[in-house]
Amino acid sequence: MELSLIKILICDDSLLIRKQFKDLLLSHGCSQVFEATDGQDAVDKYKTYNPNIVFMDIVMPVKTGIEAVSEILEYDKNAKIVMASSSGTKTHLRKSIEAGASDFIQKPIDESQILNIINNLKKEA
Amino acid sequence: MFTQLFGSYLLNKKSITAEQLKYALEYQKNVHLKLGVIAVNSGFMTAESVNQVHSMQCKVDKKFGELAIEMGFLDEEKLNILLNTQKSDYLLLGQALIEKEYMTLEQFGEELNNYKKDYSLNNEKFNSLQNENIDEIIDIFYNFNDSPESSTYKSYLSIFIKNIIRFIDANFKPVEIIPINEYKLQWGVSQEVIGETKLYTYIAADEKSFIDFAGKYAKETYTTNNEYAQAAVGEFLNLVNGLYLVNMSNNDVELELTPQNVLSKVNLKNLSEGFCIPLDFSFGRIDIIIAM
User: Fold this and answer.
1) What pLDDT is attached to residue B17?
2) How distant is the Cα of B168 from the closest Cα of chain A, in angstroms?
3) Which domains does chain B have, with CATH numbers?
């Protein structure tokens, strides 16, 4: 699948992180990048856009990222969700896996790590 | 960080003036470390023997190390250790002070010895400081007035400082910490660590320093205190706190974070075991506030 066709949802309450993600992805040929500002917003935007991949923070207002993962997977059991958090504690890792997240990346975001994930998705699709 | 601390030490002892320290810190960027300064620092030679070698150098065209061996002050092994000594910022500061004639080599050697004595530093600890071992530096310089939370605060501050060096600027001047019960905050962000232990954390500053700090972290130039600048400072605090949680988790203590908040013109009150840890950067002062 062409990068420009891959739909990506960035879910983070930090405006800076969303911008950094978006700038990175747009500069590498992605064009369909959507944003959510909290866990509930992520669930709602997922249902609206049906993205190919979600990057999900954990600590957020309204609804945590882990709660949002569970809800999204209830809606779409094939959803691909990568947790992107600065707090990769044992509990967060365990809860993320239990909720059904497919990967976990530690912030600050590493450009090559994100691009690898997107490129792998491109090959899979 | 150690260079700044040693500079502050000389300043506090009135061995040099603030103006001289400022010039020396600028000047050190352009000087090369001399073997004689390293030799005194390592304890292999006294200032007097270094001066004897220097006098001899005026008479014969030989390198410092070569002459020091001939005169019996060094052997090959010690010379190699000196030659392999990595570039050390605080020694460069010392050399700058000497070259600017703010102090003599003897005075510098004496100040180093006083410093070791004042902080009860054995050679091993002193080497850790020279190697910028942040955990060691924090352990020695931040005692948190023997607060019962001292060890928690030290491990937190260690992560904080390491990320300041990594993401903001390594050239900051740590200032004496202040025990506080209240704090008048102009601009800041806050986040709580919750769980077995509760920790309130803040980054606070005047508006200009807040904006500049944000710009450093985001690698952007912010001219106004906009949402991006505020998000950047919040994200830096979140990053530090996240790493603190990972650290605690590795020690089998599981903690959680609340979302970070942006604060403006508020008086923080009833800060239990509260401390303000000021850091002076070229762009202004940033206060780290921690409380239980």
Assistant:
1) 87
2) 14
3) 2-136 (no CATH), 142-291 (3.40.1550.10)
Structure tokens at B115: 């410093």
What is the nearest CA distance from B81 to chain A, expressed in angstroms? 38
Question: How many beta-carbon contacts under 8 Å exist across A and B?
Answer: 55
Give me the pLDDT at residue A8, please. 95
Q: Which of B235, B254, B258 sits opposite A89 (nearest CB)?
A: B254
Higher pLDDT, A123 or A125: A123
CATH 3.30.470.20 is right for the domain spanning A3-124: no
- Please report the ipTM that was assigned to this predicted complex: 0.86
pLDDT for position B30 = 66
Is the separation of the CB atoms in A68 and A42 below 8 Å? Answer: yes
Q: What is the CA radius of gyration of chain A?
A: 13
User: Tell me, what's the pLDDT at B83?
Assistant: 78
Inspect the interface and report whether the beta carbons of B245 and A107 lie closer than 8 Å: no
- C-alpha torsion B38→B44→B49→B52, nearest 10: -60
Chain B within 8 Å of A27 (Cβ-Cβ)? no
Q: What is the pLDDT of residues B200-234, one digit of tens each?
A: 999 999 999 999 999 999 999 999 999 999 999 99
Helix axis angle, B105-118 relative to B47-59, nearest 10°? 160
The ranges assigned to domains in chain A are 3-124
- Mark the ranges of chain B whose per-residue pLDDT is less than 70: 29-32, 85-89, 131
| Res B89: pLDDT | 66
More confident residue, A122 or B68: B68
**What is the SS3 assignment for B275?**
strand
Contacts 24+ apart (CB under 8 A), A82-86: A82/A53, A82/A54, A82/A55, A82/A56, A82/A117, A83/A56, A83/A57, A83/A58, A84/A12, A84/A17, A84/A55, A84/A56, A84/A57, A84/A109, A85/A57, A85/A58, A85/A59, A85/B242, A86/B238, A86/B239, A86/B241, A86/B242, A86/B243
Residue of A nearest to B247 (CA): A89
Please report the DSSP string for B169-225 in residue order.
Answer: -S--EE---EEES-EEEEEEEEEEEEESS-EEEEEEE-HHHHHHHHHHHHTS--SS-
**156-195 of B, contacting A, C-beta below 8 A:** 167
Q: What is the pLDDT of residues A3-43, one digit of tens each?
A: 888 999 999 999 999 999 999 999 998 889 999 999 999 99
CB contacts of A106 in chain B (<8 Å) are 246
